[in-house]
Amino acid sequence: MNIKITTDSSADLSHLFEERNIPFLHCPVQLDGKEYRDSLDIFPQDIYHAYETKKILPKTAAPSPVDYSEFFAKHKPENGFLIHFVISSDLSLSYTNAANAAKEFDGVYVIDTRSLSSGIGFLALKAQDWANAGLSALEIVEKIEKIKYHSQVSFIVNNLEFLHKGGRCSGLQMVLAGILKIRPVLCLEEGKIIAARKYKFINFRKSMLRFIEETIAKYKNPDYTRIALTHTHLDNELIEEAKNLIRTIAPDFKDIIVTNPGATVTTHCGKGTLGLIFLNNIDE
Question: Parallel, antiparallel, or unpaired: how do β-strands 192-200 and 227-232 relate?
Answer without folding.
Answer: unpaired
